[in-house]
Design brief:
The protein is an all-alpha fold. It contains three helices and no strands. The chain has a single domain, classed as ACP-like (Non-ribosomal Peptide Synthetase Peptidyl Carrier Protein, Chain A, Orthogonal Bundle). The chain starts with a helix and ends with a helix.
Length: 82
């Protein structure tokens, strides 16, 4: 997957978990929780949906690496290259 594909997927999953967010207005360098209401259950659901759609396993220790859009793209790109 390209970075653009991953970015689109992450935004799609975010919209699924938190439908009220304005995905186009997200600052990709900031944490999601600094930009909109995203509680721990939403965050866990976000990660579980990413795992399912990408058919990968994300270890609990890596969850903080998925805290923002740029961070997600970097982590998932590296995970796909592994």
């Amino acid at each position: 997957m390209t970075n653009d594909d991953i970015r689109a997927l992450v935004l799609d999953v975010l919209q699924e978990v938190a439908p009220d967010i304005e995905a186009k207005q997200l600052d990709p360098s900031l944490n999601f929780r600094d930009q909109f209401e995203f509680d721990s259950v939403d965050y866990l659901n976000f990660i579980l949906i990413l795992e399912k759609r990408l058919e990968i396993k994300i270890s609990e220790g890596d969850y903080p690496k998925l805290s923002g859009l740029n961070a997600c793209v970097s982590y998932l790109q590296a995970k796909g290259d592994a």
